Amino acid sequence: MEIKFNTFFRDELTIQDIQKGMESGEITSKELVMYYLFRIAKYDQEGPKINSILEINPDAIFIAEALDYERTVKGTRGPLHGIPVLLKDNIETKDSMHTSAGTLALENYVSPSDAFFVEKLRKAGAVILGKTNMTELANAMSSEMWAGYSARGGQVRNPYGDADLFVGGSSSGSAVAVAANFTVLSVGTETDASILSPAIQNSVVGIKPTVGLVSRTGIIPFTYSQDTAGPFARTVTDAAILLGTLTGVDELDPATFKSKGRAQQDYSIYLDPNGLKGARIGIFNTVSTESDEYDEELFKNSVQILSDKGATVIEDIDIPSFHRDWSWGVSLYELKHSLDNYLSKLPPQLPVHSISELIQFNKSLGEKALKYGQDKLEKREQFPNTLRNPAYLNAKLEDLYFSQEQGIDYALSKYDLDAILFPSYIGSTISAKAGYPSIAIPAGYMKSGRSFGVTFTSTAFSEGILIKLAYAFEQATKHRKSPFMS
User: Fold this and answer.
1) What confidence tens digit (pLDDT) does each residue in 407-461 have?
2) Is pLDDT at 290 greater than 80 in this prediction?
3) How many other C-beta atoms can be found within 10 angstroms of the C-beta atom of residue 457?
4) Which CATH superfamily is domain 7-268 in?
5) How far apart are CA 126 and CA 129, in angstroms?
6) What is this structure's pTM?
7) CA R_g for the chain
8) Among the four residues 32, 121, 173, 424, which has the most C-beta atoms within 10 Å?
9) Is the separation of the CB atoms in 443 and 479 below 8 Å?
10) Contacts from 344-351 at CB under 8 Å and sequence distance 24+?
C-alpha cells in the first residue's frame, strides 16, 4: 500500500510556498522530508531509476522534527528553516554521511567537520537531506568517463524524456535531484561548467559564483584557482535565497577575503521583474550550429525577450580571447597539488593518502573501480606538487590575463555592458578561468524534448546584477516544465 500525502504536495514547491504552509500548519518540515524520501524511493531508486541520490542522511527526519518544534517555541531562523537541501558528494559533512567524491576508495570516509558553508546552512535551519551522485572526482578520473558516472554511485540519468540524454557534469546529481523534485534545493561545485552544464541539461537554475564568494573549505578539491560551490533551484528566487546563505568570509580560505564588503547576505533584493529594463546585454553567439546543445530558434527567442522587456541588446559582440588555444596547465598542476594534499590529511585507517595510492587502489579493484579507466589520474601522477613549474606559472598568468583583461572585462568595457548572454554554457571556460560569476536559466525545450538554456555572465561579484537579469527573464518566459516520470 502506497503512503498518501496531502494535496499540498501535488506540485513542485518553492521556499515561499513551504514557509507559508508551515506557518499555516498545513505541513511540517518532517512531512516535507518524508515526502522527498518517498519520491527518492519511488523515482530515483526504483521506477525510472534516475540515480541522482548517493546517500541519505539518517538523521534528516530527526533534524526536521527538532526544527518543527523550534518553530513553535521560538519562531523561524529565516527562509531556510526546515527546508531540505542536498549536497554534492565532494562536500564534507560531520554527521553519519560519507564524503567520497564518488570514489570507492573514500566510500567509508566520514569527515570530522562540516564544510564552512554547510555549517552556515545548518545554522540557517536547513535540513541536510543527503548527498548526490556526481562524475567521479569531479571529472578528474578518465577522459572516457560519462558525465554523471561514479564507481560508487553508478550513472545519473536525465529525467527529461530519453534517460540516456546528457546529464551534464560533474554536479549532475545535484541538478537532477532538483529537476526531478527530490528536494527543494541542492548545492553543487564547479571548476568549469560543472554547475552551468547540468543546470542547462536539466532545466533548472544554477549559479556559479565568483571564486571566493563561497568558501572552498571542506570541498574535495580539483583546483585552487577555479573551484567554487553554488546553488541549484527550480526558480531564480530560491537560488538567490540559497546563495545568500552560502556566502561568508572564512578565515581558513584566503579566496574569501576579497569578498568582504562585496558579498550579500540577501540576494533576494535583486528580484525585480522589470530588471531587464535599461540593461545593456551583449550577445555572444559564435557557436557551432551542429552542436547538440544549441538551438538557434530558442536562442533567438531568448534574445528577443531581452529586447521586448526593455534591454538594449548588442548583437555579435567580440571577445578577443574566446577562441584562443587555452592551456590546461592550471588544472593539471593544481589537481596534483590540491588532491595530493587533501588525501595526505585523511585518517590513517583509510586506504589511500596520495594520488599514487588511489591509482593502485583502483587497479586492485579492476572493473569495479575502472569501468572507464583512470588516464586523467595517471597523467597527473608524475606532475610535481610544488606549483613552481614555469609551465604552470605561465598558464596561470595567461588564464587570468586572457579571460579577464582580454576577455570578459574587455567586452563589458568596449560595449558598455551589464552582462553577456551565451547560448547554453559555451561561456563556461572563459568565466571559469577568470573566476567570474554566471547564472544558467531554462530557455525552452528542443523538438527532441531536450532542455535548452542560456547563461548570463559578468565581472567579479556581479551576482546581484545577474540575478536581477535572470529573474526578469524567468518571469517573462516561465519556460521551465516539470519532467514527466512514470
Assistant:
1) 999 999 999 999 999 999 999 999 999 999 999 999 999 998 899 999 999 999 9
2) no
3) 28
4) Amidase signature (AS) domain (3.90.1300.10)
5) 9
6) 0.97
7) 21
8) 173
9) yes
10) 346/106, 346/109, 347/109, 350/105, 350/106, 350/108, 350/109, 351/105
Quick check: 205 and 199 in contact, CB under 8 A? yes
DSSP state of 385: S
Query: Which of 88, 120, 371, 468 is an active site residue?
Result: 88
Q: Is 197 a catalytic residue?
A: no
Residue 25 burial by CB count (10 A; 0-12/13-18/19+): exposed, middle or buried? exposed
154-155 and 228-233 beta bridge pairing: unpaired
CA distances (Å), 402 to each of 49, 394, 421, 459, in order? 43, 12, 19, 14
> What is d(CA 244, CA 226) in angstroms, rounded to the nearest whole number?
20
SS3 84: strand
Q: pLDDT at position 486, please?
A: 67
Nearest to 369 by CA among 352, 392, 384, 389: 352
Active-site choice (52, 100, 142, 170): 170
In the set 52, 194, 431, 458, the catalytic residue is: 194
Q: Is there a catalytic annotation at residue 194?
A: yes
Our answer to whether residue 345 is catalytic in this structure is no
Grid cell, residue 19, equals: 514557509
